[in-house]
Amino acid sequence: MLDITGLRKTFGADKVALDGVSFAVRPGEMFGFVGANGAGKTTTMRIVMGVLSADAGQVAWQGRPLGFAERRRFGYMPEERGLYQKMKVGEQIDYFGRLHGLSPADAAKATTGLVERLGLTERRGDAVEALSLGNQQRVQLAVALVHDPEVLVLDEPFSGLDPLAVEALAEVLQERARGGVPVIFSSHQLELVDRLCDSIGIISAGRMVASGSVDALRSAEGQRLRVVVRDPKPGWAENLPGTLTVAGDRETLVVTGGDDQAILRAAVQAGRVEHFGSERPTITEIFKEAVS
Amino acid sequence: MKNHLFMVAGREIRAQVRTKAFVIGLIVSVLVVGGLAFAPKLLGGPDSYTLGRVQVAELPVATFAPDAEIKWREFPDEAAAKTALLDGDVDAAVVSGSRVLTDGEIDSELGLLLQSANREAQIGASGVTITPLAMESVGADARYEGARRGIATVLVLVLFFMIIGSVMMVAMGVVEEKGSRIVEILLTSIRPWQLLGGKILGLGVVGLINMAAILAAGLAGALVSGLAADFPPGMTGIVIGALVWFILGYAFFAAFSGALAALVSRQEEVGNVLQPMTLLLMVSYGVSFYASADPTAPIATVLSFIPPFSSMVMPVRTAAAEVPVWEVALSGALMLAAVVGMLALGARIYERAVLRTGARVRLLEVITGNKP
């Protein structure tokens, strides 16, 4: 379990970047970290990786405060990608494996495995600078994964990738999560977060405004009812809660909470009910609700 | 943990040695320095004359010019000698009747030689012997002064260019890692001092390879061209000393550069931020250049003890003049202490600055402030 408790960080005298950020990520969990630009995602991840030090608060792994020795077993992908541009793909992955403490034989084995898994076999002998952005990102991921890390911290791993590369990366991350590794990644692609993550954390202006399992956040959002009525009597929804939208002769009422049976009766009396059902809010909706 | 230092150093060496720039640079500098060893021979060098004679005995020219290379050719008559003269095959021809034929005005040195040899031959023939003057110097042995200064001048240039070249590589490497943020990944697995130390070590080895190749090329060239005959005794010591001083000077300036370079995030800012280091190196260069011409001047003596100037002034002084061993040892010890101090300070600045990307970090803030 990775526990982040009460992180506080100010830059300069008055710019508060983090104001008591806390959340936890369990082994095997994919944790999506979302928030607007400048909300504090990168700062939080950099503190987790020890690149920045926090003014207050702590990060603990398996119940113990995180130190250099533990972080060496983490895998990290910083927001701004960093690779040696003139170094060959295979050598680069191998080098980082060695730096993380792998023996030459293990590093070579891990490199070969990752190069194959990420579809870089043909580019193994090429300098990184000769690769497309998508392939460079794959190398960056390989560098983060080469030492079989206990925890993965990835800042915007999917940004700027084509759909195929996104799929390839997502698959690899899911595989690691299934192997019991907690995976934290930040992203602005909320559908992707929705599809991949077991839990999410929403940060806004340096504070966590919501965090937990996706299901729990959805239930917290409340049951939502959507009713579509064709050609209803005018003013049928005037006494009902929720918001009404009109498109041609179809009127749609979306209600959170309320007496669903009463709403159904009103709808049946008003006209032809084409749709009646409860629906789950999307992460985009949860996000909008949380940061508003 | 030491392992990581060597891993980083190994990467730096491999990254450099494989580049075309390194290979070409090495070949060019070896050729230039090797060629330089032939320059004195082309410009001056020992004289060589080819002399002709017609029905007369050889004159004892060699007695008066032991270093010169004298070749005699015998011709059957004056006409044959004239033809050879006009063809440029001989420099002068001695013919009967105490006459010397030349093509135009005779070379003044050759003229003197022939006159002296002629006098010696005639006096010898008359049975009189003259005891030649024996020359004795009551001052210091000045035989090698010229050679020593020449070697010192070359050494100044080699030391300066090797140090500044290697040190710039360190600075550029630091900024490459900081600017690309690769340092963020590196520093989650290794310590800052290992990263900076490994870089300094690796690029130092590359510099040493260059330096050794240049010195070897110079020595080999000198041996082949015969210039080595003019070398003062203790040349091996001067060369080994130059390598040791190069290591000390490089370590000092490299740690300084690495620390300064960690303050900026873009290659364009490197030149600017390195100014204090460049200035110090330029002053060292200027003083040691002066010392190569006047190795016994007070300023040369004083600065040959003060780090980091001593790293360039002392080797030049030892090459240009005799320096007592204790002076070299003291100067070396002081420089070594300065290197250790600079490495510690450099590592501290580097650690505190290298993760602070964006605008240039202020040096004072880094030295006095806390970790970011």
Please describe what this structure looks like.
- With 292 residues, chain A is α/β, with parallel strands linked by helices.
- Chain A has two domains: 2-212, Rossmann fold (3-Layer(aba) Sandwich); 222-291, Alpha-Beta Plaits (2-Layer Sandwich).
- In chain A, 35% of the residues lie in helices and 30% in strands.
- Chain A is built from ten helices and 14 strands.
- Chain A has helices spanning 41-48, 68-71, 89-99, 104-117, 133-145, 163-178, 190-196, 214-221, 260-270, 283-291, and strands at residues 2-11, 15-25, 30-35, 56-61, 64-65, 74-77, 151-154, 183-186, 199-204, 207-213, 224-230, 243-247, 250-256, 272-279.
- A six-stranded mixed sheet of chain A has the order 6-7-8-3-9-10, sandwiched between helices. In chain A, strands 2-1-4-5 form a four-stranded antiparallel sheet, covered by helices on one side. A four-stranded antiparallel sheet of chain A has the order 12-13-11-14, covered by helices on one side.
- In chain A, helix 3 (89-99) packs parallel to helix 5 (133-145).
- The longest helix of chain A is centred in the middle third of the chain and has 16 residues, at 163-178.
- Chain B is mainly alpha-helical.
- Chain B folds into two domains: 2-40 and 143-368, no CATH class; 47-125, D-Maltodextrin-Binding Protein, domain 2, CATH 3.40.190.10.
- Chain B is 66% helix and 5% strand.
- Chain B has 15 helices and four strands.
- Chain B has helices at 2-17, 20-36, 39-43, 78-86, 108-125, 145-179, 182-189, 192-225, 235-261, 270-273, 275-293, 298-303, 310-320, 325-353, 363-368; strands at 48-53, 69-74, 92-95, 99-101.
- In chain B, a hairpin with a 3-residue loop joins strand 3 (92-95) and strand 4.
- The interface between A and B is medium-sized, with 30 and 22 residues.
